[in-house]
Amino acid sequence: MSEQLAHNYSQPRHQVHVTNNDNHEVSNSRGLFLLQETERIRGIAHIAGAAIEWTYERPEVIEDEVPLIGLHGFCGVKSSYREFRSQVAQRGKPAITYRPARSRGYLGDVDINNVRDPGKLLSQAAWAVMRDIKKSTGDTTFDASGHSMGGYTLTRLAKHKPEHLRTAIYVGSVGLDDHSVPQMLGRAVRFIQDELRPSGLISGTENRRIALEGLHYIVRNPLRTATEGLNAAGCSLKHEIPLIRAQGIKTAALQFELDTFFPTASVTEESSHLFDHYQVLENPTAKHIAPQILASEVAEAHINILKKLHP
Any residues with CB less than 8 A from the CB of 117 and at least 6 apart, and which? Predict the structure, then answer.
């Protein structure tokens, strides 16, 4: 079985698959010019009727044993974060991605409480993956990186499970500048026109899987998709960051120079002082989907941030 590459900038890999005693699929891969060989373990976590597929990628030589779990953005499918995960692992740090939890079963889909609180399943899914990996690998503490809407998920996770988080990294996150739902709708149009379409991320044979998974994300539960989007568009996280730091969790924000959704200038002015570490990835192509297009640079930034927070 071969794994489709995350985007056109990925390097080719050769894979061999085996199965361990926990019925988790394991593969080894070595690509062209990789920093080091990595091993992937796959499993399925269950929470409140939802099944969440996850992948844990660990390096041959571990330099930082605390795994990094990536919390996806709105309509952010697992395959679009694959290269970022691999780049982190190739730098000596275990890394995790997982598929979005779209459903708790059809009765759960129409439960008004789930519609009122779309973030509940988001944070529960992340915790379910962490708990499942804990059983599989023995890891009890995690670093977490929340991209875009993933920043909202990260905040809820940090509030409810602070004892399992060492670091919370907000990556081009929602809620760090004052934005309204109408403003976000306008930004979404510009994002599609100026960033998503030119990137080629959802076009071409190699990226077809990303496009299909994104479509499934929307149509599997359109009501949930709409409430997630509205919730992310209207949320503010600025008052939450000091509370997370008070729990003993180190915090950081990584912004992108030309982010279409969350302009760096306004985020810097309004929220840079809230974090233990604040950083802007200065690159003329660093936009909102930098984790997909500039996976290597974003991974390197994560590693450097973690070294500064945990010397």
Answer: none
Give the Cα separation of 233 and 224 in Å (integer). 14
* Distance of alpha carbon 107 from alpha carbon 256, whole angstroms: 40
Q: 146 pairs with which residues across the strands?
A: 71, 170
Q: Measured between alpha carbons, how far is residue 106 from residues 117, 159, 226 in Å? A: 17, 28, 17
Tell me if 178 sits within 8 A of 263, measured CB to CB: no
The tokens of 266 are what? 């306004």
| DSSP labels, 138-171 | ----EEEEEETTHHHHHHHHHHH-GGGEEEEEEE
- Hey, what are 252's tokens? 């950081």
Q: Give CA–CA dist 54/40, Å, rounded.
A: 10
Q: What is the pLDDT along the chain (311 residues), one digit of tens a residue?
A: 223 222 222 332 323 222 233 434 444 444 334 467 889 999 999 887 778 899 999 999 999 999 999 999 877 666 789 999 999 999 999 999 998 875 555 555 556 666 677 778 888 889 999 999 999 899 999 999 999 999 999 999 999 999 999 999 999 999 999 877 888 788 788 877 777 777 665 555 556 666 666 666 666 667 767 777 777 777 899 999 999 999 999 999 999 999 988 999 999 999 999 999 999 999 888 888 899 889 999 999 999 999 999 99
By DSSP bridging, strand 50-59 and strand 25-31 are unpaired
CA–CA dist 76, 145 (Å, integer):
13
CA atoms of 88 and 232, how far apart (whole Å): 26
15 bridge partner residues? 29
Between vectors from CA 91 to CA 201 and to CA 96, what angle results, nearest 5°? 60
pTM: predicted TM-score of the whole model, two decimal places: 0.81
